[in-house]
Specification:
261 residues, Jelly Rolls, 9 helices, alpha+beta, 10 strands, globular, Arc Repressor Mutant, subunit A
């Protein structure tokens, strides 16, 4: 289903824009799996918190996976699209450009601290029709806490070269494929050496590392909805659950079950 076919075309359309006097505005929305928000941008920054569900954000030639209890920061002016991978309850928060918690145009996936979750919950419960000192205090505390949250690198860079893009699109559609770089070279009409050079030049990493990032990204919605780790490992091309868990721990410093707790 395209977002243009649904009433959820822009779930935050009625949310008022933030201002210097009120630098944060907050709302909630439910989005069904397969909903897509086509590329767009806004003048304010946006921090979208996934209470539950999983979304993918594409911007700046990269893709970010946002699993439950995480948030994605999208700076003002950055063109981005959103794909809902699992039915999601989101909390999009607009942030006045002059109060952006991070400098620059980079998107980030953050682990919300317990304090930030409580601050957001408290802000959401307020009567937003009447401005109050409590609301302004909560907003200031939220803006102070956001940059203190840990960043999680569930990030997949995307290429511009057509040959490399064909390979990357195919691998993102089938992350468990066990083809070697030589196998892919035969399919996309470029030599293995050329593809290897393109991976380093355009994506800043080798083929194996990039494929691992893709597999991690695809593991997120599977684990979030309770798919057994043995099945996740098999679908993503790992010989065993232990092999998948070891790779996950090496990347994130904890087990998959701890990460998605």
């Amino acid at each position: 289903m395209s977002i243009s076919q649904a009433s959820q075309k822009r779930p935050d359309r009625k949310l008022p824009a933030p201002t210097a006097a009120l630098p944060i505005t907050l709302a909630g929305c439910d989005l069904r799996a397969t909903v897509m928000l086509e590329p767009h941008h806004h003048e304010w920054g946006q921090l979208t918190y996934a209470v539950h569900g999983v979304i993918r954000v594409e911007a700046n030639n990269s893709s970010w996976i946002v699993p439950p209890q995480r948030a994605v920061w999208i700076p003002g002016g950055v063109v981005h699209s959103v794909t809902v991978l699992e039915d999601s309850l989101l909390r999009p928060m607009r942030v006045y450009a002059g109060r952006a918690p991070f400098p620059g145009p980079e998107c980030k996936v953050l682990e919300l601290s317990g304090l930030l979750r409580e601050l957001l919950a408290a802000l959401e419960k307020l009567d937003r029709q009447q401005r109050s000192r409590r609301e302004l205090l909560l907003i200031e505390m939220i803006l102070d806490e956001i940059p203190r949250c840990a960043e999680h690198p569930m990030h997949v860079p995307l290429p511009s070269d057509k040959r490399l893009k064909a390979l990357c699109d195919a691998l993102m559609a089938a992350p468990g494929a066990e083809f070697t770089l030589a196998d892919w070279a035969a399919q996309v009409g470029a030599s293995e050496r050329t593809l290897s050079r393109l991976f380093e030049r355009e994506l800043g990493m080798g083929f194996g590392h990039w494929r691992q990032q893709v597999r991690l990204a695809h593991a997120a919605p599977l684990i979030a909805r309770g798919v057994p780790l043995s099945q996740v490992a098999a679908e993503l091309g790992y010989a065993s659950q232990s092999a998948f868990s070891a790779m996950f721990r090496k990347s994130f410093g904890c087990s998959p079950s701890s990460f998605f707790k």
